Amino acid sequence: MPYSVYILECADGTYYTGITNDVEKRLVAHNTSKSGAKYTRVRRPVRLAYTEECQNKGEALRREYEIKGYTRAEKARIIATFSEKGV
Known about the structure:
The protein has helices at 23-32, 38-41, 57-68, 72-84; strands spanning 3-9, 15-20, 47-54. The chain is of the alpha+beta class. It has one domain (3-84): GIY-YIG endonuclease (3-Layer(aba) Sandwich). The chain has a 3-stranded antiparallel β-sheet, with helices on both faces.
């Protein structure tokens, strides 16, 4: 089952990185659910800034860990590259 790593841009300009097997459903949950991530619950609305498909959950978890270690500038750079592709 394919998983995706995603980066959200929160209303306060911060970034949130996570993984899911359904990006659209997870985005809705981040914006509306009471049981979603506490970090995004207080920073709504959030928008999808970046997504990257992975082969499996293990690969997605490794990539999420890698991205979470990036600086804000590095995250902004991959988001900009993603945006330039018109995705």
